[in-house]
Amino acid sequence: MRMVTVILAGGAGTRIGGDKPLRVLGGRPLIAHVVGRCAAPIWINAADPRLAQYGPLVPDLPSPGQGPLVGVWSALCQAAVEGVEAVLTVPVDTPFLPHDLAARLKAGLGDHPAAVAVTADGWQPACALWRPRVAPVIADHLAAGRWSLAGALRSVGAAPVPVSALDFSDKLTPLFFNINTPADLADAEERLKHGQD
User: What pTM was computed for the model?
Assistant: First the structure.
């Protein structure tokens, strides 16, 4: 199966003061941490040319700033053009993602149109594996003003794939911990200092 990983990095990041993908964590941009946990090849769902060093840019279509479901749809459309069979999406603000996320979701995909990571806390809808054939369904959601990733995944019949949310090390690291605020970034720095990357 030809698969690509798409890092969803097109958001404004207003709660953290903007430029979320390039915020520094442990001496590296946040996006670099996510890239290090993803399977290649990697595309970046963003229009910022500064992010092109991490992978080909796939900007939102038709217009940016409408939420991650637009990013998913844009990536699925590009994947269909390039003959990609599955698109793994992950958010740019999750630096502790499981290294085996792609393998787990691929194993759980089967014949389903999509698969989504599920932890004890529920669905992690930004962490999902999508077949490009669902792009028309996503387009219908967007046209109707429905922006929910979880809603779109339920609509296409995504398979829930159990994934551990914790890394059992000296302290428990929430693998799907996401960074939205300066306080979250400071928390992540502390986790890195304790060797939890």
Answer: 0.93
* Residue 44, token pair as written in the block: 């970046």
From the CA atom positions of the chain, what is the Rg in Å? 16
pLDDT bin (cut points 50, 70, 90) of residue 166 is: low
Return the SS3 of 136.
helix
Phi and psi, residue 127, nearest 5°: -105, 90
Report CA-CA distances (Å) from 2 to 62, 83, 87, 112, 152: 26, 8, 9, 16, 23
- Give the dihedral of Cα atoms 28, 29, 34, 40; nearest 10 deg: -90
> HSE on the CB side for 51, CA within 13 Å?
28
Give how far Cα 26 sits from Cα of 139, 157, 188, 194, 195, Å: 38, 38, 9, 11, 11
Place of tokens 């792609």: 102
